[in-house]
């Protein structure tokens, strides 16, 4: 089976990134701001400076954690037909953008803050779109207490979609416990959630080399509940990581390994994904340079490191519309950079529905990105290279200087041998953004009107809503 994938690092270069990351952890260390987690690491053999909070993790502890971590697992959906088994064999699973701070109103076309109703519609549209495999908490609803927004996001995602839900933020240990309780309600208890985790959580180290108290304590709570951890490191080359690609890779790799150690000490065997959204910083503005030519190289290298450790991964992004309004706004060079991210060898990738470089979200952009993803999957599919497909007998039968068009072999195999592009997106490409946004808007409206996700038991819904109301009181 052949796959078109980018390879960036030679074997000896993988060895360098690994060995330098081990040196970072053992000699420079990582600052752990939680006393409880520091003590857990100390008991396991790490060297801890309680005054500075710096923990030095020996190579032996990293190796033990890599042995304990599962090499494959399932991200469950509320309906088993949406279960995602990782690592993938060919095309990565694609999810939505996440935690946007504004959205594009479908009626006015203007940016605005989102509400609970918007969050429900984003989840519902994610459920309706066959191209979307899992969903993130797409926007932050502003009509709920700020401290409780993550609880609302988890509940909305799980009750308005049958697909696996990935929460982008967990504020602290109490927040983690609340998210676990809500998910447990749906599956029938915390023991059932351990068997069938229908949600996972992104927990991000603070680059460079810091595990924030609230986040790492939340990670420990989630891991003990059996919730898969996605350790998404997000350094910017030249800002929160060395400006060199090699230096950035070492920071990402060291932070991922440190996070893995915490997960496996808290709950040996808990599913843990190697993840990063590391890109260069824009040296002219300090912004995030998702379109930089180095981005596909970074993600390809991280995909290789994840495979070296046999950890399922989520590295890279899909789409990430640069414009503040829906459409396709990037130049050819920028599109090439973001599209090449998908060749990293990752198992999961996110970004559907993003505007304003992930600061915004849009229903229309979800439709456009989904149709584009349909086309892009053709580049990522498996290709069988074997003697049967070499078709020597067919070559012999057709002979010299003749056509294969009329041979039965062509008629039997062309539909599976060739990938046929979606005609809708081909029309949109021909007209740039002039026609695609209004058409996408109508498709989104139709889906939101007609799609009805499988309902949750009324008593479960009521119990969850009451639980969230009680949780909100602590933030009043």
Q: What percentage of residues falls in helices of 4 or more residues?
A: 40-55%
Low-confidence stretches: none
Largest sheet: 8 strands, parallel
Secondary-structure content class: alpha/beta
Describe this structure in words.
The protein has 476 residues and is of the alpha/beta class. The chain folds into 2 domains: 315 residues, Trimethylamine methyltransferase-like (TIM Barrel, Alpha-Beta Barrel), CATH 3.20.20; 31 residues, no CATH class. It has 18 helices and 20 strands. It is globular, with a radius of gyration of 23 Å. The model has no long low-confidence stretch (mean pLDDT 90).
Layout: helices, strands, pairs:
Layout: H1 11-28, E1 30-32, H2 35-43, E2 47-49, E3 54-56, H3 59-68, E4 73-75, E5 84-86, E6 93-96, E7 102-104, E8 111-112, H4 116-128, E9 134-136, H5 149-159, E10 164-167, H6 173-187, H7 190-195, E11 199-202, E12 210-211, H8 213-224, E13 229-233, E14 236-237, H9 245-266, E15 272-276, E16 279-280, H10 295-308, E17 313-317, H11 332-340, E18 348-352, E19 354-355, E20 360-361, H12 363-380, H13 387-390, H14 392-398, H15 408-417, H16 423-430, H17 433-450, H18 458-473
Parallel strand pairs: 1-12, 6-18, 7-20, 9-10, 10-11, 11-13, 13-15, 14-16, 15-17, 17-18
Antiparallel strand pairs: 1-3, 2-3, 4-5, 7-8, 19-20
Helix pairs in contact: 1-9, 3-9, 4-5, 5-6, 5-18, 6-8, 6-18, 8-9, 9-10, 12-17, 16-17
